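Reopening this ticket.

The earlier resolution said the output was attached, but the attachment link was broken on my side. Pasting everything inline this time so it's all in one place.
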Amino acid sequence: FQQLFFAAVGVMVVLIFCSSMTGIIGAPLDSGAFFLESVRFGVLGAGAFMLVVAAALKGKSWFVTGIVQSAFVAVMIFPLGGWAIANWANSHNDTGPATTRWAVVLDKHEYHGRNSSGYYLHVQSWRPGRSIESLKVDWRTYSKVVPKTWAVTITTKPGYLHHEWVVDYKLAPLPVPGG
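Inline output:
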């Protein structure tokens, strides 16, 4: 049982790690809303996992300890694992047409947390009801872009789960007027 438990946790950690390493490519534009929608899959997975754990631990003297440890792991891993799987399904199963758009970089923002940093470019939105889109980029790209003097050519697809995602992007300085 212990080997199966660690194998399941290991697979979920690898999926989460691989999903988070993709950066902007493959990521849905509405990542917050997408995460909230995908949590239900993680909750279902966590529930199934807990049922299997309970069945495997039935009759063991350390049943309660095992359930508590498994519940902690399930709460930490399965919501993120559900997001990773949904993210993969949204981008890799998408057969919709690619659309290329052009937008001016309006602003940029960097985030520094305890163990991570994130670099974002805010560009004009092409979607109804939105004024900006936030695109996560690497530090090198972030450091060279000057807002209102650079533009992005971005290719997106509609998404298998109906969440538009980024296929590719290219940044370039805007042409200088009269130059």
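Reporter confirms the inline version is readable. The first helix runs from residue 2 to 20. Helices lie at 2-20, 31-57, 63-92, 139-144.
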